[in-house]
Specification:
The protein is built from one helix and seven strands. By secondary structure, the protein is mainly beta. It is globular and about 45 Å long.
Length: 153
């Protein structure tokens, strides 16, 4: 059995407050770490982050500008690793809220063709894996927050 591989060719999609940002990114990943570094708690809470690197641009509406002007704000995000508009069991979406990190650096090495900036933004709670859309979701629209969220068991 073969499985679809994730990568740049799978055209991943990341939106922040409904605005597509993938074209500005050079890399991204969702990471986690234990919140308890003392090893006292046998089941420490996982802390999740959206990490990445993107091109710097001072143009209105750029991700760099969004980061600069929204630093510290809580915003909705959706990650579509396969780039699909509608989530499925085999190609889920991951949604949640995150805190936009500190204002980004500006500038870079004199010989560089493009100047990137790095970011690490804390996700509030665990990203929710979504495998089906809301019944009223238009297949041509993918908006943050419009998903069925299962009731806790």
């Amino acid at each position: 059995m073969t499985f679809p591989r994730l990568g740049a060719r799978s055209t991943p999609s990341i939106t922040l407050e409904g605005v597509e940002r993938a074209v500005e990114l050079t890399s991204w990943k969702i990471t986690s770490e234990d919140d308890d570094e003392t090893l006292v708690d046998p089941n420490p809470e996982q802390v999740y982050y959206l990490e990445g690197e993107a091109y710097q641009s001072t143009a209105s509406g750029s991700l760099w500008g969004f980061t600069r002007h929204r630093s510290g704000d809580v915003v909705a995000f959706t990650v579509r690793p396969h780039g699909n508009a509608i989530p499925t069991v085999d190609q889920p979406h991951y949604v949640g809220d995150l805190v936009v990190g500190p204002k980004p650096a500006l500038g870079g090495d004199s010989g560089a063709r493009w100047f990137p900036f790095a970011f690490v933004w804390r996700i509030l709670g665990e990203p929710l894996e979504v495998t089906e859309p809301l019944p009223e979701q238009d297949p041509d629209e993918s908006l943050d927050g419009l998903y069925l969220i299962p009731e806790p068991s």
